[in-house]
Specification:
The protein has 70 residues and is mostly helical. The protein has 1 helix and 2 strands. A hairpin with a 2-residue loop joins strand 1 and strand 2. The longest helix is centred in the middle third of the chain and has 52 residues. 0% of the residues are buried.
């Protein structure tokens, strides 16, 4: 079995190549899991910020409500 490394093909044992591919898959799965956790955390933080901004805007509107009647 041959493995392509850049522009070169290297002869390797099939079992060794399967092992290398399996390790790469595990690493990619771990990275994907980490990215998923980061996305979830950032989404939660963004939602909290949106709530906070919404409350601040609501309070600001309420503080200017009395000016309508002047």
């Amino acid at each position: 079995v041959y493995q392509i490394v850049g522009p070169v093909m290297i002869k390797k044992e099939k079992s060794k190549l399967k092992e290398d591919i399996s390790e790469k898959k595990k690493l990619n799965d771990m990275r994907l899991e980490s990215y998923d956790k980061q996305i979830k955390k950032l989404t939660e933080e963004l939602q909290e910020l949106q709530k906070l901004l919404g409350l601040k805007m609501w309070h600001r509107r309420q503080s200017f409500e009395h000016l309508k009647y002047l």
